[in-house]
Structures are given as C-alpha cells and as structure tokens.
Amino acid sequence: MGQFDDLPDIKDYWSREDWVDATLDYQVPRNDLDAPTDEERQAKYGDNWRKVYALVRQMATLTRDDAERVASNRMTESDFDTLYEQIKAVAPEGWTERYHYFDPEDWAVDFKYAQAEVFWETRLHYLAALMAVLAGDGLPEKLRDSAMYAWTHR
Q1: End-to-end alpha-carbon separation of the chain, Å?
Q2: ∠ at Cα 72 (66, 73), nearest 5°?
Q3: Which of 4, 84, 109, 130 is the most exposed, fewest CB within 10 Å of its CB?
C-alpha cells in the first residue's frame, strides 16, 4: 500500500494534545459552518496548524478509500497482512498490548471468519488505529470516541 511512507512524523512538530485537538476539530464538524476558521486555528495552534490538518485530511482519505475496498470485498487477506505489518512497523512499542481492542490480529480473524458481519466494526478499528499510530502513542478515549462518531456519521 505504501501510504504511510509519505506521512511525516507528527512528533517532530506537534504535541499529542494538539494532535488530538486538531483531529477533533477536523473530524467532528458536520459542515463548514461548524468548523473553526483559519484564523481560529492559527491562534490556537500557531504556524504549524496547516501541517497537522494536512495529515488529518490525508489520513481520512486513506482510511475511507481502504474501508470501501473492504466493504466491497476488494481487500484481500494479503492486503490485511500488509496493512498489519505497516502499522506494526510504525506503532510505539507495546502499542497492541496496551490497546488490544485495536489489535490488527483481531481484524484478520474478523476478515477471515466473519466477513460481512464485522466489516463495519473493522472499519471503525482501522480508522481509530491509524489515528493512534499517527499520534505517536496510544489512543486517548476522547479521540477514539470522536473517530467512531465521525466515521459512523459520514
């Protein structure tokens, strides 16, 4: 897949708290009127806010596209294995042990044995897990809940 290759390390210029705030700002608003203005984002996050928003937009596009592949049965078991290896390569040490709810091994079992019955839940896991990986540490509960809300209300 290779999409992770182009994503800069968010820890280089952004704290986890700012990442959570920016992600919530981007994910939760239902229309442009609810979203913060550029001036509000600049005041809150400083000069780097555009980098974080670019990451969030890129990540949202990635997860939506790949989830659609799963939903239409175009994502193979090999695709899942590749995704798992990519996430393991960039995930913090002990990440899957601390956040077992998002362990990709569970997704593989779901994909192999349950098929359509769990595709929706698997997509939620996938989106939230990518947010955790890009944040550089585990998955804050507030962010997890926001991710699932945003995904189910697309």
Answers
A1: 24
A2: 90
A3: 109
- Which DSSP category does 76 fall into? -
3-state secondary structure the chain: CCHHHHCCCHHHCCCHHHHHHHHHHHHCCCCCCCCCCHHHHHHHHHHHHHHHHHHHHHHHHHHHHHHHHHHCCCCCHHHHHHHHHHHHHHCCCCHHHHCHHHCHHHHHHHHHHHCHHHHHHHHHHHHHHHHHHHHCCCCCHHHHHHHHHHHHCC
Residues 18-36 have pLDDT tens digits of 444 555 454 444 444 555 6
Type of residue at 14 = W
pLDDT at 40 over 70: yes
Which sequence spans correspond to the domains of the chain? 3-152
Residues near 23 by beta carbon (within 8 Å), at least 6 away in sequence: 56, 131, 135, 143, 146, 147
To the question of pTM greater than 0.85 for the whole model, the response is: no
pLDDT in tens, 98-127: 444 444 455 444 444 444 344 444 444 454
The token pair that represents 38 in the structure block: 């550029």
